């Protein structure tokens, strides 16, 4: 159930049976020679929609632009500053909490978002903690799940891609997007076959260390079929995680 395809009356009815909502969060950034710019947002969105269908959960609009300053050396990449992303998350959660939502389950597709999203949750909790005694602000709970860290995702990454998964522009995430958008599948030469590993600071530093955008990966191994395998295995993990979160 997608929030933006509901009427307000349908949302009001949903709130009588659940106060949980899933918020996909990704990024719009380069993903190497054959990966789509929208990879992280696409992955978060397709997992969120599948979990929403399986768990009868409402899915909020995807936060498609994340904290990706280090990718700005590549055309098409976009970023929000950490402070902007914290404000966006805070305003979205506060808007929804006004209606009675109190369990916010973020499905994330981008490692670069983790620190900022975690800080956003702290800001949200701080608003309650710092409010005057006797305030009537709703008590809310937020959690972040990185789909690529679900047990099934880690197992399949090892089984399908071994030491060529890497950490950016991975064959796992590229496979999921190829499954989701078969008309957008790209092919490109990978040179070297497996990209270098390492750390980075800003956009210029990143581009000089990782000239084609990949880190440690060989996304030439990606395929739509692998993407379907990953989707089918990971969605049940996330559904279980969502149900446990609602019950906590
Ligand atoms: Ni990614």
Describe this structure in words.
- By secondary structure, this protein is of the alpha/beta class.
- The protein has a single domain (3-247), classed as Rossmann fold (3-Layer(aba) Sandwich).
- The protein is 45% helix and 8% strand.
- The protein has eight helices and four strands; from the N terminus they run αβαβαβαβαααα.
- It has helices at residues 8-17, 39-55, 82-98, 114-129, 151-161, 171-180, 203-209, 224-247, and strands at 20-25, 58-59, 103-108, 141-146.
- Strands 2-1-3-4 form a four-stranded parallel beta sheet, with helices on both faces.
- Helix 3 crosses helix 4 and helix 5 runs antiparallel to helix 8.
- The longest helix has 24 residues, at 224-247.
- The two termini are 22 Å apart.
- Nickel (II) ion binds at residues 31, 39-40, 110, 173.
């Amino acid at each position: 159930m997608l929030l933006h395809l509901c009427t307000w009356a349908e949302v009001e009815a949903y709130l009588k049976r659940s106060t949980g909502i899933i918020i996909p969060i990704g990024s719009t950034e380069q993903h190497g020679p054959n990966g789509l710019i929208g990879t992280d947002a696409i992955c978060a969105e397709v997992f969120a929609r599948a979990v929403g269908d399986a768990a009868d959960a409402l899915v909020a609009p995807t936060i498609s632009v994340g904290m990706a300053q280090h990718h700005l050396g590549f055309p098409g990449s976009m970023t929000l500053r950490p402070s902007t992303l914290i404000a966006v998350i805070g305003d979205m959660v506060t808007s929804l909490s006004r209606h009675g939502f109190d369990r916010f389950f973020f499905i994330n597709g981008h490692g670069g978002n983790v620190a900022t999203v975690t800080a956003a949750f702290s800001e949200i909790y701080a608003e309650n903690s710092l409010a005057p005694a006797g305030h009537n602000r709703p008590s809310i709970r937020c959690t972040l799940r990185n789909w690529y860290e679900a047990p099934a995702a880690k197992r399949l990454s090892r089984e399908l891609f071994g030491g060529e998964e890497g950490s950016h522009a991975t064959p796992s995430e590229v496979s999921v997007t190829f499954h989701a958008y078969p008309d957008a599948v790209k092919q490109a030469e990978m040179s070297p076959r497996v990209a270098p590993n390492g750390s980075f600071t800003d956009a210029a530093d990143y581009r000089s260390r990782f000239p084609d955008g990949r880190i440690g990966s060989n996304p030439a191994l990606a395929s739509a079929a692998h993407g379907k395998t990953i989707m089918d295995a990971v969605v049940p993990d996330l559904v279980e995680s969502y149900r446990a979160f609602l019950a906590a």
